[in-house]
Fold this sequence. Notes:
The complex is a heterodimer.
Chain A: E1 4-12, E2 15-23, E3 28-32, H1 39-47, E4 54-59, E5 62-63, E6 74-77, H2 89-99, H3 104-117, H4 133-145, E7 151-155, H5 163-179, E8 183-188, H6 191-197, E9 200-205, E10 208-213, H7 215-220, H8 225-231, E11 234-246, E12 252-267, E13 272-275, E14 284-297, E15 300-306, E16 311-315, H9 317-323, E17 330-336, E18 341-344
Chain B: H1 8-31, H2 37-41, H3 44-77, H4 83-95, H5 98-109, H6 116-123, H7 131-156, H8 160-167, H9 172-200, H10 204-209, H11 220-229, H12 233-259
Amino acid sequence: MSLLDARLVVRRGDFRLDVALTVGRGETVALLGPNGAGKTTALRALAGLTPLSGGHLTLAGRDLSTTPPEHRRVGVVFQDYLLFPHLNARDNVAFGPRRQGAGRRAAHATAERWLERVGLTDLARRKPRSLSGGQAQRVALARALAVEPVLLLLDEPLAALDARSRLETRAELHRHLSAHPGATLLVTHDPLDALVLADRLVIVEDGRVVQEGDAATITARPRTDYVAQLVGLNLFRGRGEGHAVRLAGDFVLTATDVVHGDAFVAFPPAAVALHPAQPDGSPRNTWPAVLTDIQRHGDNLRVRLDGPIVVAADITPAAAAQLDLAPGRALWAAVKASETRAYPAS
Amino acid sequence: MTRGRVPGALLVPAIGGLIFLVLPLAGLLWRTPWATLPQRLTEPEVVEALKLSLLTASLATLLCLVLGVPLAWMLARVAFPGRRVARALITVPLVLPPVVGGIALLLALGRRGLLGGWLDSTFGVSLPFTTAGVVVAEAFVALPFLVISVEGALRGADTRYEEAAATLGASRWTTFTHVTLPLVAPGIAAGGVLCWARALGEFGATITFAGNYPGITQTMPLAVYQTMESGDLDGAVVLSLILLAVSVTILAALRDRWLAAP
């Protein structure tokens, strides 16, 4: 049985959040979505900082839907950490245990143990303002874990860090989250954080869950444009007719998979080959296209093509020079059926 | 910052404003009978009035802190019905002439007043014309300064720290004492200093509500007024100088300690 079982409904003006979430014991789930999707609202609702308009919230068999935050046993690592500026690192971590009734000495001992686990023993007496971003993040994590929460919530835990400390902190965070015996929910808009830190991904757009599953499933079979972009795939929806999927405008893409009815077709930008004229032979998908945009993408170039379908394609700089690529250039695009994946949409 | 010449239309009134504020103080210093100053300073009436002033202003500040900080918290954090009206009512003593405030206090807390009659018959407590009455009059006039200043500090403080405290298991009261108060301490100190300075200089409400009895209700401003009325200009100047020196010294000391905080 899941440790956390919730359906969070929050109405605020025109915005309506309605997501169902379950997180098991020891499991880490990432709530991934674009800005404004309602991720932080969901986190605040779980913590009790935003009241539910409907739905339910059960944690370890206890109904929490109207419980005030101080009685929930939910630990939160806030996006900008919110370490109390008037308390040093140790007292920040000891704050929770003290409120749970521990004596001053016991709370300090607990705090020192947690600071040791995050490797900050030396900085126990430092005030938050003299800690670096990565150090403050670790103190915030220690503070949230020190109350031994049944549910640990992290709001964009790495967003406030620079690229270098992010890499380091991400690996370390992964270690601590794996060791956390309760449920963990992580809110992020960074797919890499989600892929590295979470066992399962829940993707939220516009207040609703659009897809959930493990990283492999989601990267292989995206179900919305946002997810497809996130994992770097071209994604189309149409009607499956065996090996073919018929898209809007009667355009047909062929795949090796067999699907019937409402279906998705996806292929990576690197699978798109560009030709100056219509290629012949071979059972592949070909169509005339017009180049609209060229951008650097790692060592390659990513081009955007208009035509019966709008796709992104990755090509080498050498190929680009050979094809004399410039916006407005008419070309032929081709994708092998073996590189196209088709799967049911419902 | 400045580019080119400062326009005369701004410079002249600016200098005029500065002179306008400083000139009376210079007048006070110029007229001070420096030769007899040490002897006058030790006169028992002077010492008594000074002690009473410091005592009542400090007690009034304490009373304002005890009542005003929770009131400011309510205004800043709780969306209760009538909050706007409450906020407007709090500013009334600010614009009310203190003498009118004193009369209002008499009508409320006087022996035959709204609440005073009950206080007198039940507890035998009568506030007018007592040292406690001075404290009440000063607190009445000074409280709005504290409430407005602390409410501003509370509104400026990031309430998400309070949310963080709640997720760590802190009740609303513990959050207030362990997180909110330390965060707005500089604001409370600033409000307290402002409150104390206002109480120290209080005249109108005090003389109306508490009267002018040396040793009991005669604070420094009242002593200055009475000495002046009796024709002893030198005495009035000396008392004024003491009041000025005490308030400037204490404000400067507190300013370095508290008000310089970011």
